[in-house]
Protein: D-lactate dehydrogenase
Amino acid sequence: MKIIAYGIRDDEKPYLDKWSEENPDVEVASTGELLDESTVDQAKGADGVVVYQQKPYTAAVLDKLGSYGVKFMSLRNVGVDNIDADAAKRNGIQVTNVPAYSPEAIAEFTATELMRLLRRTNTFDRKIAHGDLRWAPDIAEELNQMTVGVFATGRIGRAAIRIYKGFGAKVIAYDIFHNPELEKEGIYVDSPEELYAKSDVLSIHAPATKENEHMLNDDAFSKMKDGVYILNPARGILVDTDALIRALDSGKVAGAALDVYEDEVGIFNTDFGSFDKIPDERLKNLIKRENVLVSPHIAFYTKRAVRNMVYFAMDANKSLISTGKSDKLVKL
Ligand code: COI
Structure:
């Protein structure tokens, strides 16, 4: 059996090599290149592909994989919004993801960014760099006095809830699916609007779907408390960036931590050499603000998560090839 792993970064390679040593029955090929029309030919002769990228898996790529008889594709990440589902189905390609490589990694990062916003550390760091060591006017807020609204209570949302509770915050949540434990605690509100109206902090942990594209738009912001904090470690497309900029300008939003951005593909995880060369004026507008923390999709990026992404995806692909089954199969 042969598996080709695409987009393997230097930090993933040792884990892939170790997995390969532990699975001598599998021929493992790897490349640092992403899976696209220019690289798909490298999958010829393989039984499965293991991939991670934010770039789309297009119909053209999936049709080619299908024509090479590659029917198993395993993602090393959670999100499946960049797959052309019709093309995957048409080609009989089964897809697995890694739903839980480390929900805690993302939750911990989100909470870290929230504390940075509340304690104004970005502002103080910038002031200190200019020799200004005064306190005022940058007085902070305390999370234990606040209500955090968690949008979506999957694994990551639940890990975030545990942390917010540890800080003594009141936590409420909205989700179409109610987690039985959280239900017992009476944590759920009935609608996104109720969540918006009652939250001092909004922590977004939903996957991207056709329905929730730009769910945080002008209308949603208008229903929130004045001075709300927005945390988005989920998907850029959930937030209408122009509406967020308007809400920051008006003071409706007091601060935002964005680990994702709707136009991040080709920008995040790239070195442009200088701030001026970042080719996105809207993103630069956000980065320049002291009350906005932009990070390049790194909430997931821990040793444990990267190890699990490689191992769980390789295991799932091997299982699909040898048995046709995997507990990580995605319904597209
Ligand atoms: C995901 O797992 O879907 C992420 O957002 C993390 C990143 C590897 C893209």
User: Anything to note?
Assistant: The chain has two domains: 2-101+303-323, 103-294.
